[in-house]
Amino acid sequence: MNKYLIFGILIATIVLSGCVENESTPNTIIIPTETIIIPTETISKQTAIPVGYISINFSKKIQEYVGMKEHPSNNGMVYLIITYHIENHGYDSFNVNPYYWKCIVNNIQYEHDVATYYLNDHFSTQEILDNGKISGSIAFQIPKSSNYTYELRYDRPFEHYIIKWNH
Length: 167
Prior knowledge:
Blueprint: H1 2-18, H2 40-45, E1 53-63, E2 65-66, E3 71-72, E4 77-89, E5 93-95, E6 101-105, E7 108-111, E8 127-129, E9 133-143, E10 151-154, E11 163-166
């Protein structure tokens, strides 16, 4: 029984000594710290996310027809032929399918025209891999006007790219 009494007094002393305010450092609260273990596997897998971009240079020409006059534009319309020069800098791939390209004139969005496929250098559904380059053209049928102000867009569903447009 003597052992238990000594053990109890020892425990009580330890507990009570922790409740006494430390006089040497007034206004200090001592908070027990936790040890947080981060698995080394998690640390070794942390890598920087590469920041890539797509560089697009383009030129335009306005035509009344595509090909050897076999595809005239509709009444009041002309073909806006955009020739793209595209470089992929950092993405696994970038698809140049004509369905992803849009042309906006006076707040109206135009899809590529079927005449695109009669251009000698038209895009099909190629994938530009990282560091790849490609050139090709797309035809849009837009209203005939003396002022050809337009906006080009690339809109691939469920994908987002940083695009640097250069004219």
